[in-house]
Amino acid sequence: MNHFTKRLMLLLLVAAPFLARAGGDEVVVIYNTSAPESKSVAEHYAEARHVPKKQIYGFEMPVTEEISRAEFRDSLRLPLAKKLERDGLWKFGSVTIPATNGQPKRVIKQVVASKIRYAVLCYGVPLKIRPDIEINESAATNMQAELRRNEAAVDSELALLPLVKMDLPLTGPFPNHLYGTTNVALLNPTNGILLVARLDGPTPEIARGLVDKALQAERDGLWGRAYFDVRNIADPGYKIGDEWIRGAAEICRELGFETTVDDKPETFPASFPLSHIAIYAGWYDGGVSGPFAPPKVEFMPGAFAYHLHSFSANTLRSPNENWAGPLLARGAACTMGCVYEPYLSGTPNIALFIARLAAAGFTFGEAAYAGQSVLSWQTTVVGDPLYRPFGKSPQEQHAELARQKSPLLEWSYLRLVNLALARGARAAAVCNLIENLDAATNSAVLNEKLADLYAAQGKPSSAILTYQNALKLNPSPEQRIRLRLALGEKLQAQARDAEAAEDYKKLLEESPDYPGRNLIEDKLNKPAPPAAANAPAQP
Fold first, then answer.
1. Residue 141 DSSP SS3
2. Which one, of 247, 249, 269, 246, lies nearest residue 259 by Cα?
3. Most buried residue, 53, 203, 246, 275, by CB count within 10 Å?
4. DSSP secondary-structure letter at 473?
5. Which residues contact 412 (CB under 8 A, 6 or more apart)?
């Protein structure tokens, strides 16, 4: 390892504080006794995460995704609270709230001691609580008209279970006083919040596999590329959505992810090659679209994917409707979504979520609730809440991959390269680093990065040769398309039209179902521009 490489390796120490691993003893697992598949998912999760058997609870509930307020209260909310108290996992007591801002001192009854922090709802547990027109709360008259509703996600409503002995309003969202917290210890039932997530999806097999994907990524690391799709919108009422997604992209870039941001008003087109997806966030199509529409998508193990839309999780049972279910069906390990209309301010702050998950080392459950400004509202959290993809220091992870001679080591080196660039390293020096890495010899990932850097430095011939080399190193199907597209553009820019045409023909041969086939055929059918009289001869 040369001196420059050693210096760059120090960048791996610039990482999040790594917290104690959350364990299964902090979890209660809940299944629906009316749905046989629900128990099998619960048992699989409990075994994988070493949840004590006494903390696996079955309740008889409706088997539909949508239930009434009374069904939620009588079949889940109250029975669960009683069970937790009776089994000694929770202790309720009186807490005095000091007088503030003209409000008198008051005494409330809530959880004052807890042995658990998480609740995992398993496939078959209802998803959402339908509106109840008979609920009439006087306080709601002071609320914004659009928010005077009492429907909610089961997850979000159950998150307030530690306050079950208080008479909380059911109308409208309830402020999350731990929104944005940097202290995971505060995310505790003794502070009025239960971290609720679900193992769910279009099939029991998909639901069961979410913990397996999480465990694989915890062991090997969450690697791949980060993709963000903003709308470039100026409307003040919607601009915050773009700001959240841009913020998430910037965090990923600073953490060393190869990061792509699409700022066109439309979502990613179907022709856009998305390879090795580790993180995705975008908005605002009503149903799964673009490169996510095909049944196979290149999600990496442990990938997080989220599409901001008012009804993104209106159902989790369909592999093709809305967004949450389809993303899980195509391989994402975790997601979030809205079961009913939340209005933009009531959706998760995805930048805050990514900051807590990737930069602060929170678990998925901790990050999901630190990123929500309101509870008792519309967000469902899908995935293993104990999942901590950044639970190992980057240096520790890199050393393990090197020791194992893992093919994933190329991604750790790519992170190293991107960290160096994010902190001001010169592209030429980083190119030198990659050129001298043994790991780059057989890596399509590192050769693509090297080619991109050559192109950015105005070295088209070097870029072309390196893209060609990357194509020989077993790239993934979507990466191969991206390499072909980049190579064709560089060849055309050098007036090497015959070679570009050959490259595009190979793209169509290798990927006959490529959605952008018509665009490539247009390039092939377009007459070549006349050669300039003083054009240099091509070698």
1. helix
2. 249
3. 275
4. S
5. 221, 223, 394, 397, 398, 401
Contact 192, 29 (CB under 8 A): no
Residue with tokens 């966030």: 281
Number of H helices, E strands in the chain: 18, 17
Q: Would you call 150 helix, strand, or coil by DSSP? A: coil
The closest of 374, 413, 366 to 390, measured between CA atoms, is 366
Residue 419: which H helix or E strand, with range? Answer: helix 409-422
Residue at token pair 């995935």: 383
* 44's tokens: 């699989």
How far apart, in whole angstroms, are the C-alpha atoms of residue 139 and residue 80? Answer: 28
Phi, psi dihedral angles at 243 (to 5 degrees): -65, -40
Which of 356, 344, 349, 351 lies closest to 181 in space, CA to CA?
Answer: 356
The pLDDT, as a whole number, for residue 228 is 98
Q: How does pLDDT run across 305-359, given as a tens digit for each residue?
A: 999 999 999 999 999 999 999 999 999 999 999 999 999 999 999 999 999 999 9
CA–CA distances in Å: residue 156 to residues 85, 110, 257, 350, 376: 21, 18, 31, 17, 5
**518 exposed, middle or buried (CB, 10 Å; 0-12, 13-18, 19+)?**
exposed
Gap between the Cα atoms of 341 and 395, Å rounded: 43
Across residues 34-44, what is the average pLDDT?
A: 97
d(CA 500, CA 485): 9
Angstrom CA distances, 289 to 232, 269, 293, 342, stand at: 19, 8, 5, 22
* Number of neighbours of residue 364 by Cβ within 10 angstroms: 29
| CATH dotted code for 394-525 | 1.25.40.10
Beta strands in 27-186 (DSSP E): 27-32, 56-59, 66-67, 90-97, 106-114, 118-122, 128-129, 152-153, 174-175
Ordered DSSP codes for 369-394: HHT-SEESSSEEEES-TT--TT-S-H
**Per residue in 133-178, pLDDT tens?**
999 887 777 888 889 999 999 999 999 999 999 989 999 999 999 9
Count of CB atoms within 10 A of residue 58's CB? Answer: 16
* The model's pTM: 0.93
Q: Are 379 and 342 in contact (CB under 8 A)?
A: yes
- CA atoms lying within 13 Å on the CB side of residue 274: 29
**In the chain, where the domains are located:** 24-135+144-382, 394-525
User: Within 10 Å of residue 273's Cβ, how many Cβ atoms?
Assistant: 22
- 272 close to 262: Cβ distance less than 8 angstroms: yes
DSSP labels, 166-196: S----SS-EE-TTTT-S-GGGSSGGGT--EE
Q: What is the DSSP letter of 145?
A: G
Contact by Cβ (8 Å): 510, 480:
yes
The alpha-carbon radius of gyration of the chain (Å, integer) is 26
Angle of the 497-510 helix axis to the 477-493 helix axis, nearest 10: 170
